[in-house]
Design goal:
GMP Synthetase, Chain A, domain 3; Rossmann fold; 2 domains; 11 helices; 33% helix; binds adenosine-5'-triphosphate
């Protein structure tokens, strides 16, 4: 708990008791980083005017000279109804796997596709039957990561669309439809159509886990997929920099709004792992994503080091997580945490509201 943030709350009254908010037991988290304060409050009473409370907190926090911006997160009561998914029962296609896990990021280039592919490989190592749907319409990179760039693409048979297979993972990719280098601007409905086709017409077989590599960002395309696929939970990938974490927060909020459980946050490129001496160097600072996960009340799934082998492997169509080295182990830990979180993912996600 950050004392500056707590002290700045002295003038705000707890609506339930009238006592100063900083002396009530409502506060679940208080953080201050780079002039941005984040306050997490436990759920209030049913008749609480959350908007007025947020406004009062915003005003009190930003009046402090060390606080430039403030975010207020009010958790939803677990007894309250989860936010209604926008999808209707009739619109949701039948799940093609026991669990469908989306891997998402608030911004591009944080290693979302690398993480999705290696989480899939880690699940294969655990003996699960695994599929991966590369839904990143803006930059489908799964064909390259899985070493399938020269592959003939998807074949349609009488029985449906046959997925390709590499490293024990069944794979379909927008890249097989549009080509990795084609400039494509796909609109929400087109994405949804392709996703629906991938979900309903592909012969996935009997999958334990289907991983969806989402397009990066938190716009219409992501929302369309979140609403049209039967997603059991989402893993958010972020790098440790404040800007990436800001975007990761937006991704958490997007999925919360569609009532999709957040299985956790993976921090990629956490530290540089020297391939020669094995020593770790914290280039961007460390612990940001872990602190963020704690603040948002979601599991932290672990740190993936920045390691040249990961980039080389991706370019050569190898998956590091199929092996046993330190980077592979980091992915295995993240995959175990992800599957563990999936088991308890049936409670309603907290309502998270961001205000700048
Ligand atoms: N931990 C890492 N260590 C070294 N290189 C990495 C690591 N993670 C990702 N990379 C490399 O960074 C580049 C971007 O990774 P990737 O394509 O997975 O990002 P992305 O978030 O999916 O990007 P986009 O969403 O914009 O397609 C790739 O060249 C990848 O090999």
């Amino acid at each position: 708990m950050n004392d500056i943030v707590l002290n700045a709350l002295a003038s705000v009254a707890d609506p339930a008791t009238g006592a100063p908010l900083n002396r009530s037991d409502r506060i679940d988290g208080a953080d201050l980083r780079d002039g941005v304060a984040t306050l997490v409050l436990k759920p209030g009473g049913a008749d609480e005017d959350a908007g007025a409370l947020r406004q009062a907190i915003q005003a009190a926090l930003t009046a402090h000279p060390e606080i430039e911006r403030a975010r207020v997160i009010i958790e939803a009561s677990l007894s309250a109804k989860a936010p209604k998914p926008a999808k209707s029962e009739a619109a949701a296609p039948k799940a093609p796997a026991k669990a469908v896990i989306a891997v998402a990021s608030g911004k591009g280039g944080v290693g979302k596709s690398t993480t999705a592919a290696n989480l899939a490989a880690a699940c294969v190592k655990m003996g699960l039957s695994v599929g991966l749907m590369d839904a990143d319409v803006y930059g489908p990179s799964a064909p390259r990561i899985f070493g399938l760039t020269g592959a003939p693409g998807l074949q349609k048979t009488d029985g449906g669309i046959e997925p390709l297979e590499a490293h024990g993972v069944k794979l379909v990719s927008m890249g097989f439809l549009v080509g990795e280098r084609d400039p494509v601007v796909w609109r929400g409905p087109m994405v949804t159509g392709a996703i629906r086709q991938f979900l309903t017409e592909v012969n996935w077989g009997d999958l334990d886990v289907l991983i969806i590599d989402m397009p990066p960002g938190t716009g219409d395309a992501q929302l369309a997929i979140a609403q049209s696929a039967p997603i059991s939970g989402v893993v958010i990938v972020s790098t440790p920099q404040t800007l990436a974490l800001d975007d990761a927060r937006k991704a958490v909020a997007l999925f919360d709004r569609t009532a999709i459980p957040i299985l956790g946050i993976v921090e990629n490129m956490s530290f540089f792992l020297c391939p020669s001496c094995g020593e770790g160097t914290e280039i961007f600072g460390r612990g940001g994503a872990r602190a963020e996960a704690e603040l948002l009340g979601v599991p932290f799934l672990g740190e993936i080091p920045l390691h040249p082998e990961l980039r080389e492997a991706s370019d050569e169509g190898r998956l590091v997580a199929s092996g046993d080295g330190p980077v592979a182990k980091a992915f295995h830990r993240a995959a175990s945490g992800m599957l563990h979180a999936l088991e308890g993912a049936h409670r309603p996600a907290p309502e998270i509201v961001f205000e700048d």
